[in-house]
Amino acid sequence: LLLRETRLQALEEEERNLLLELSQARTDRKRYMYAVAIVSLYGLLERLVDSLIERFVSRVAALVPSYSAMPEAIKRSHVALSLELVKAIIDDRFKRDATQEEVIANLHSCISGAEQFQVNGAAFVLHRGNISLSKITGYLTSVGIEASLRKTASTEAFVQYLAQVEPERIMQNISDQELTKLLDPIDDLVERRNEVSHGVINVDAIESIDLLRERCRFIRAYGQSLHELLTIELIRFEINGPSAQPLGKPLIVYGNSIVCFEHAACKISEGDILVASTPTGILPYRLSPILSIEIDKMGHQSIDITSTTRFGMAVSFVAHDTYEYTVLPKPSDEVH
């Protein structure tokens, strides 16, 4: 879910082929293909969560001037979790390319106040049993992110998913109890993965192709929601960084998607990120790549403003003239 669109398309093609093969299989083969689908989907969720948390910690470390400026939750957890990571490496329970010497050196760079420091991001997702909804919440809490069910379900990605599968439901009207049920598929996937791992596959419990496809859609939406939550937290650091260009409040907003400004000094290109700081709401920021730029109804791929000029930018989120806006540089093309 953090991959480039071409890689996403490749994954979706693999999913379609797997589900097609499952639909055409006989009972024994169907049992096997179902097991593969469940284990693969669980593995994708696990790798996704690990990648998101690690990259979040690394990105925050790159944005702050010193370790002392890291979020309190990360500093509070870092030492104990790093020591757990060292023990896991010694016990051969950590299967990645990290040594105990590297982990200790990274930890020392942080607590010694070194100018160049390295946080042990992997320590924040050290597995102690299967991943679950409560464990994901715990991982997020350890890096300073409050991830209530309502906050997760209020992200654009999850709201769009719900609108597709249950268009009659309105997120604002859903009770806390209903929210818990909405996210049940996470722990249900974990339970089914455990059954598969122990060789317990009841033919009657094998899901139809449609249900498996829906499960894939849910995991995708949930993963995008986590990405959105982490991105929003990063924005807190980004908008105060040296690359940010504050634009303030707009002159006017047309159709909740064209945001118009008057400014005397800014440099903006299509693909840069426009961030809206919202005065209220459960999610404090909205953001979108800049889809197009116009001056006097003429399109521009980029603008370099050096005198007072009026211009408009198109975005994909619902914009309002009460928001404060900031432009951030286009994300790097590097793929991790």
Short description:
By secondary structure, this protein is of the alpha+beta class. The protein has helices at residues 5-24, 27-63, 72-90, 100-111, 133-142, 149-153, 156-165, 176-182, 184-197, 209-238, and strands at 245-248, 252-254, 258-263, 266-269, 273-277, 285-289, 292-295, 298-300, 302-305, 309-314, 324-328.
Write up what this structure looks like.
The protein is an alpha+beta fold and 336 residues long. It has ten helices and eleven strands. The protein has helices at 5-24, 27-63, 72-90, 100-111, 133-142, 149-153, 156-165, 176-182, 184-197, 209-238; strands spanning 245-248, 252-254, 258-263, 266-269, 273-277, 285-289, 292-295, 298-300, 302-305, 309-314, 324-328. The strands form three sheets. A five-stranded antiparallel beta sheet has the order 2-3-10-7-8, with no helix packed on it. A four-stranded antiparallel beta sheet has the order 1-11-5-6, covered by helices on one side. A two-stranded antiparallel sheet has the order 4-9. Helix 1 (5-24) runs antiparallel to helix 10 and helix 7 runs antiparallel to helix 10 (209-238). The longest helix is centred in the N-terminal third of the chain and has 37 residues, at 27-63. The termini are close together. The model has no long low-confidence stretch (mean pLDDT 85).
